[in-house]
Amino acid sequence: MLFKNGNVQKQGAGTSFYYYSPTSSLVAVPLSSKEVPFAFRMNTKDFQVVTVQGQVTFRISEPEQAAKMLNLTVNAKGKYETEDPEKIEERVIRSVQVVVRNEMEKQSLQAALMSAQALSSLLQSELAKQPSLESLGIEINQASLTAISPTPETGKALEADILESLLKEADSAIYSRRLASIDQEKQVKQRELETEKAITKQQQELEQQKLEAEREQMQQRFEMNQESIGAQTQDERKRAELVELESSNARARADAKAYEIKSQLEAYEQIDIECLKVMSMGSLKPEQLIAQAIENLTQGENRVGNLNISPELLQSLTKPEQYNDYR
Known about the structure:
10 helices; 15% strand; rod-shaped
């Protein structure tokens, strides 16, 4: 920018011109973006110190406004005559510090250590609203955080706390696994018990079915036995009737036979004994006749006192071929 008598005569990015130095002045406004790192030590809500590190990228988007607020005059050699250009970075860093401090004071240590991403987004939006930067025509291109770290002592304490928490979580995981294993084992045993109960119940039902089958078989055998006994009883009754009938018939036959014998005996009583003997000799055998003859010699009036029979006579009488001759 070429200023003469307090007014801008020429301006533009990279403009070249001639000027008269005793009555004119040059103002050079940097238009390129600039990246500035920062690192702040801040207190959190619970009065713990954390270090916030990051970087911010900015550029002057309205050079006329910056030229009004700052003395950016350069000499004939192109060097700034004041230290105002260096104050641009300081103002940007100060604005960043204000936003970071306000946010850190709202959060606890653990929350602050986990808020890098959220804080980066907050810086991007809040810096664009800062009046000190708007008055200079500064545009924030990017604001990012690289680290939020506690002091070494606090870090060790947090590490110990986190380690203890991790160990507790590990123990809890172990206990959970053990409980899950116990629960699974319990479920397995319960299922085994239920299976045993079901098997026992099935066995009982099978035994009951067997008993029912045996009972039915016994009932059938009993009924068959009853039928057999009934048939045997009926058979015995018929046999008894048959025996009684046979006995009755035998008695009737015996009575008839006795009557027949009685009738014969009554008829024989009227016949002389000698006549009967003579009548019966017709059917006697020779030896019986000889015996009858010898018997007659010992009875009656013609009885013989002594009878001698020679062996030859006896032998001849006992020979069958002599029977006809004897007769």
